Amino acid sequence: MTLAVGTTFFVTNFGWCGLAWTGSGVCAATLPCESREQAERQLGRNLQYAGITGADWSLLPTAGTRDAQKWCEGYFRGEVHAPGFELDLGHMTGFQRRACAALLEIQRGQVRSYGHLAQALGMPRAPRAAGTACARNPLPVIVPCHRVVRSSGSAGGFAGGPELKRRMLELEGVRLSAAS
Fold first, then answer.
1. Which of 1, 79, 142, 155 fits 74 for a cystine, CB–CB 3.0-4.6 Å?
2. pTM of this prediction?
3. Range of 123's domain?
4. Do 66 and 15 share a structural domain?
5. Which residues of the chain have pLDDT under 70?
6. Does residue 85 sit within a domain?
7. 134 shares its domain with 165
């Protein structure tokens, strides 16, 4: 069975972003990119991370997807709003869904270490697995993997690079050490 999916691409203050959705909600998103083409490639990769490999690209935007786009645009302008749209995590593995739930607990203006995330996932000796969950997050920005840093307080890894991670955290009022 082929899954019906829709996509949209738009420009924010930080660059091109993309969203994908199913009939159940937003299932993938991108970090800001320099071009629409880069956003398209990143969205394709993130759909795979979400467990969606075959799709019928027929879905039109819904009120929820328009709300998700407005939320993303507002986020990159520094606006503070809780996401008011549905997420579709149903195609992910159980571990990915648990990681998303743990990441969603990290509030704006807060950071947690990879070790803390591993603890929250019930895997206290597996911070690398927590890091992999962040690296393969199909909903970056919405599911805030950028709020996870090294135990030293430095930025750590990030799909968009450490400078984008720093900029996003600064937008939320978090300053990382200069050596990060």
1. 79
2. 0.93
3. 94-171
4. yes
5. 1, 178-180
6. no
7. yes
**Closest among 149, 123, 137, 101 to 29, alpha carbons compared:** 137
Give catalytic status of residue 145 as yes or no.
yes
Chain segment 103-129, per-residue pLDDT in tens: 999 999 999 999 999 999 999 999 999
Q: CA 34, CA 52: separation in Å to the nearest integer?
A: 25
**Residue 169: CB atoms within 10 Å:** 22
In SS3 terms, the chain reads as CCEECEEEEEEECCEEEEEEEECCEEEEECCCECCHHHHHHHHHHHHHHCCCCCEECCCCCCHHHHHHHHHHHHHCCCCCCCCCCCECCCCCCHHHHHHHHHHHCCCCCCCEEHHHHHHHCCCCCCHHHHHHHHHCCCCCCCCCHHHEECCCCCCCCCCCCHHHHHHHHHHCCCCCCCCC
Domain end marker among 20, 46, 75: 75
> Angle formed by the axes of helices 127-135 and 94-104, to 10°?
90
Rounded Cα distance, 115 and 46, in Å? 24
* Side chain identity at residue 117, one-letter code: L
